[in-house]
Amino acid sequence: MSIIDAADPAAWARAKEQVEQAFGPVRILCNNAGVFAAGGPVENIDPQTWRWLFGINLDAHLHVLRTFLPEMRAGGEEAHIVNTVSMAGLLATAHTAAYSASKFAALALAQSLRSELESSRTGICVLCPGYVSTRLLAAASARFQPRCHQHRRLCRRAGAGLLARCHRRERGAGG
Fold first, then answer.
1. How far apart are CA 26 and CA 69, in angstroms?
2. Structural domain of residue 57, as residue ranges?
3. Does residue 131 carry a catalytic annotation?
4. Each residue of 148-159: pLDDT tens digit?
């Protein structure tokens, strides 16, 4: 396997070939690409930063789904997608408008897909972690320490160490 550009649809097609050669058809898909940038007040959001955040935090989800979902649906077997979003997709805080908007959009994409998948054997759930000690957070914290501290405190207050919101369709008796 190799590191890919998550914003490049062609890279996902190449990755899919590698995965299927190594492991066979994909039945469990963990869709976990994301970047963070605190943007300051809304009126100061840099359009390039906005596009970068949406390019990874939303568009990459779409690229992955467009690449893997058709065969997951057509396979006839049970399959499941786990989209990692963020608590910021549920709770927006000051100075994170671009990041939160991209995460809200990723959540909406998953919710819409859930409705589309109701009559199939493919399900989807959304994982919305709060602050997790990662290199992504460390890099953002170094640049935006006061804002990250405020956001972390708000997430803790909301009881958001980790929130998994699984959307499962009701199965009938034959299910």
1. 9
2. 28-167
3. no
4. 444 444 444 433
